[in-house]
Amino acid sequence: MDKLNILLDSTLSALKKLTTLTTLSDLETKTIGRKGELTEILKTLKDLPEDQRKEFGQAANETKKTLETAFAEKRSELETIEMNKKLETETCDITEPGIKPKVGSVHPLSKVQWEVENIFSQMGFSIMDGPEIESEYYNFEGLNIPSYHPARDMQDTFFIDKQADEKHGRLVLRTHTSPVQVRTMQKYGAPLRIIVPGRVFRYEATDASHDTTFDQVEGLLVDKNISLAHLKGVLEEFLTRLFGKKVTVRFRPGYFPFVEPGLEVDFSCLLCEGKGCRVCKHSGWLEFMGAGMVHENVLKAGGIDPSVYQGWAFGFGLTRLVMMRYGIDDIRLLKSSDPRFLQQF
Ligand code: FA5
Question: Which pLDDT does position 155 carry in this prediction?
């Protein structure tokens, strides 16, 4: 009992003098910790006669409780003191401007792609998708470009050393978005009104206006009594809405095996409005894309009867449109991931 009282008194008086949380923890471990002095005293319990054990046990418990409460009170007192000290030394200027979080921006290619999709959606076109790893069949044969045809050389191709399957030849990285024409015809039949934005690949030497990976937008309309007049109307409406000023379109003859007749489409120069300037090389026109009436072999490949339905298709380089839109003079910047370039949009 004496030992208990001594422990209680000496601990309480030591506690009073403490000024730091570290010394408080040390004292706590030494006195009421698992291997502390109180535990040592309790070990003598077993040597006491039976009738004294209960009394001693109760007294030990009370001592423990008293000390625990005293430690808790002292701890909270010291914590408050340390917190106040911290507040005195640290300053917080609430008028200081905040740290601006770094926010990314939408890539110019995506921005223009979304605009193109919006305009065509408003004109009743659906937006389609197709695989970037394509079969030789859909990329060429289905589009009326057999393996022996010299038109294959128009698009230098990355071939993959693997067969698609027995019917569809080798695998290739698609060289244009046109394969989605036949895929969509097979899936949905006629009539059809679709655009297909997507990434395409060509085995080309790169320069300021050519890349090996770029984006195209395909357009396809199949219905009854369709003519090139509809194509001209749709394209002029599209470009006028995209650029926010009246744009006119002209057709020149062009050759693509999957259209007949085939066309090259130009639109009036936005800068000089057709008068002639440096941008349009003094012609008044900007080259825009390939187009034409869908070849009947392509309609047949898509399972559509060419004696009932006609259609037109077009394909333009979205990447080049973005360059025109923002005055970007090197195509390679678009895929460079250089923040100095991207932060401008
Ligand atoms: C085609 O790819 C045809 N599939 C387009 C088509 C569709 C014609 C439907 C008729 C009917 P072409 O190879 O010309 O055509 O490419 C179309 C556009 O892609 C070009 O006008 C150009 O803007 C862009 N383009 C072609 N090669 C590159 C390149 N290496 N880098 C960036 N853009 C390119």
Answer: 80
State the pairing for strand pair 310-317/213-223: antiparallel
> Which of ligand 1's atoms lies nearest the C-alpha of 312?
11
Q: How far is CA 207 from CA 232, 290, 331, in A?
A: 31, 21, 8
Q: For residues 217 and 213, give the distance between their C-alpha atoms in angstroms, rounded to a whole number.
A: 14
Contact call for residues 241 and 119 (beta carbons, < 8 A):
yes
Quick one: average pLDDT of 104-122? 96
Quickly state the pLDDT bin for 104 (edges 50, 70, 90). confident
Confidence band, pLDDT 50/70/90 cuts, at residue 31: very high
Domain ranges of the chain: 2-89, 108-342
Q: Please give all residues whose beta carbon lies within 6 A of any atom in ligand 1, as ranges.
A: 155, 176, 178, 202, 204, 210-211, 214, 216, 218, 256, 259, 289-292, 313-317, 319-320, 331
| CATH architecture of structural domain 108-342 | 2-Layer Sandwich (3.30)
Do strands 192-201 and 126-127 pair parallel, antiparallel, or not at all (unpaired)? parallel
User: What's the predicted TM-score (pTM) here?
Assistant: 0.74
Q: Whose CA is nearest to atom 28 of ligand 1?
A: 210
